[in-house]
């Protein structure tokens, strides 16, 4: 096996199509439901929120979808992204396994999120949309969409979850540099925000609440469309560019992953990496283990129930079948803000149900420890979300070492942590709270599941 640090593709190697895994699934995905009628959703139900270009992708039965030229042009700013072999980490762990990582932190906003922000802004601009609205957990999605919206001449309003707004003020400034307006969520800007603030003025907020606020604005303001940074099929499909490039890079390395690891908030960076490899699992004799890693404070895949639930806190988003902790569940304010979502992508949930993927949950302290070890060997400071994938990959390598095995591990280093120094500072000061998951709160939140006939 060659000993090489990085595998780089050329600009003309950027895939020209996204891969849509949905039509290749052994069983179809359960339909999304309209939150008012609980009937299967049609394109007309989604039209007030999304442009038709994206709605058609959401329900597409095509395996491959052409990437429009203006999107490819913007991708060229930062794609193809590098795939590294973590030689120094391998040495520090004393493992015979090979650890590779796809690095998405070199994008303008610092994570994988522009891979979908750019096409989402593009399809909105194509349909003449001049204003968009969204939520952001870690600030990464908000920054990515702010960048993409300014590129296509669209105004953007962002609801940033209160806990992240307080701990990451520079993310707000970054969004403002790109021209967006940012509110802490819950906010006084919306009726829903006012309602949550009156119940608890000090609430840390949640992605579910921020989504509700953004949808309220999109519904009330004529001509404004909403954008979601994860969960939906079209978002996960845009992220397949990661895995398609990684397939080529693994070929360059003359290797193939036995284990793929990714962190999961709504499931987009994880699916983006694994979907082309999952296709090989389904269609050839490949047997790659595909492992999601989530926080113990918000363990939708490992502790949630698989059922229909609301995608947001007040029942405005489509009702989908997914692993959920209940739409009113407010996770502890851990530093991995992008992983604080009560549910999981229906696609990822479905694959978990049919045992095509597996899941593990870790506490934030052990993840930051893994992140610091990674930074000290490989040099890159991972985003708090990405430390979960680092921890998952390190554990997989150590498990192989214990069993005397040598395997190939590939994980997604989906973002850098340059705006997360408060989190790393808390880790060094020993003031990071241990993750708490309150099953009672989940059970209570699950009482509000939608009633489906
Ligand atoms: C750096 C980073 N990683 C991961 C996530 C989780 O999202 P997803 O599971 O859709 O990749 C986020 C979400 O904000 C993020 O900012």
Describe the structure.
There is one protein chain. The N and C termini lie far apart (57 Å). The mean pLDDT is 96. It contains 19 helices and 15 strands. It is an alpha/beta fold and 453 residues long. The strands form 4 sheets. Strands 1-4-5-15-10-11-14 form a 7-stranded mixed sheet, sandwiched between helices. Strands 8-7-6-9 form a 4-stranded parallel sheet, sandwiched between helices. The chain has helices spanning 43-46, 52-58, 69-75, 87-93, 114-126, 140-151, 162-167, 169-177, 191-199, 207-220, 233-238, 240-252, 268-283, 300-303, 346-353, 364-378, 384-402, 421-429, 439-446; strands at residues 6-7, 17-19, 64-66, 83-85, 98-103, 131-136, 155-161, 181-185, 224-226, 259-263, 289-295, 305-310, 319-324, 358-362, 408-413. Helices cover 41% and strands 16% of the residues. Pyridoxal-5'-phosphate is lined by residues 111, 137-138, 140-141, 230, 263-270, 338-339, 383, 385-386, 414-415.
């Amino acid at each position: 096996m060659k000993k090489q640090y990085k595998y780089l593709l050329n600009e003309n190697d950027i895939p020209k199509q996204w891969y849509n895994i949905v039509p290749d699934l052994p069983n179809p995905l359960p339909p999304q439901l309209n939150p008012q009628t609980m009937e299967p959703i049609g394109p007309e139900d989604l039209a007030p929120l999304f442009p038709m270009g994206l709605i058609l992708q959401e329900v597409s039965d095509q395996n491959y979808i052409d990437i429009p030229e203006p999107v490819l042009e913007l991708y060229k700013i930062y794609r193809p992204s590098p795939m590294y072999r973590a030689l120094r980490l391998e040495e520090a762990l004393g493992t015979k396994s090979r650890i590779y990582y796809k690095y998405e932190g070199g994008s303008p906003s610092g994570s994988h999120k522009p891979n979908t922000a750019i096409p989402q802004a593009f399809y909105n601009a194509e349909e003449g949309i001049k204003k968009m609205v969204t939520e952001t957990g870690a600030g990464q999605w908000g920054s990515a969409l702010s960048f993409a919206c300014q590129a296509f001449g669209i105004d953007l309003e962002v609801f940033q979850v209160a806990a992240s707004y307080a701990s990451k003020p520079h993310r707000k400034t970054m969004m403002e540099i790109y021209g967006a307006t940012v509110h802490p969520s819950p906010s006084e800007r919306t009726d829903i925000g006012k309602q949550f603030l009156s119940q608890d003025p000090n609430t840390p907020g949640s992605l579910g609440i921020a989504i509700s606020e953004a949808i309220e604005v999109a519904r009330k303001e004529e001509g404004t469309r909403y954008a979601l940074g994860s969960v939906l099929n079209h978002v996960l499909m845009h992220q397949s560019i990661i895995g398609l490039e990684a397939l080529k890079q693994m070929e360059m390395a003359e290797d193939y992953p036995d284990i793929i690891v990714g962190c999961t908030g709504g499931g987009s960076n994880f699916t983006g990496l694994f979907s082309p490899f999952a296709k090989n699992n389904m269609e050839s004799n490949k047997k790659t283990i595909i492992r999601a890693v989530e926080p113990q404070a918000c363990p939708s895949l490992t502790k949630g129930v698989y059922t229909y639930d609301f995608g947001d806190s007040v029942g405005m988003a489509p009702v989908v079948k997914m692993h959920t902790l209940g739409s009113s569940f407010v996770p502890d304010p851990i530093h991995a803000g992008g992983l604080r979502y009560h549910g999981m992508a229906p696609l990822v949930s479905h694959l978990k149900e049919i045992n095509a993927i597996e899941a593990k949950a870790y506490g934030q302290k052990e993840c930051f420890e893994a992140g610091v070890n990674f930074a000290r060997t490989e040099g890159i400071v991972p985003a708090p979300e990405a430390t979960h994938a680092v921890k998952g990959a390190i554990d997989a390598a150590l498990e192989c070492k214990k069993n005397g095995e040598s395997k190939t591990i590939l994980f997604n280093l989906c973002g850098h942590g340059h705006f997360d120094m408060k989190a790393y500072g808390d880790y060094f000061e020993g003031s990071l709270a241990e993750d708490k998951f309150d099953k009672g709160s989940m059970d209570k939140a699950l009482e509000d599941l939608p009633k489906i006939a």
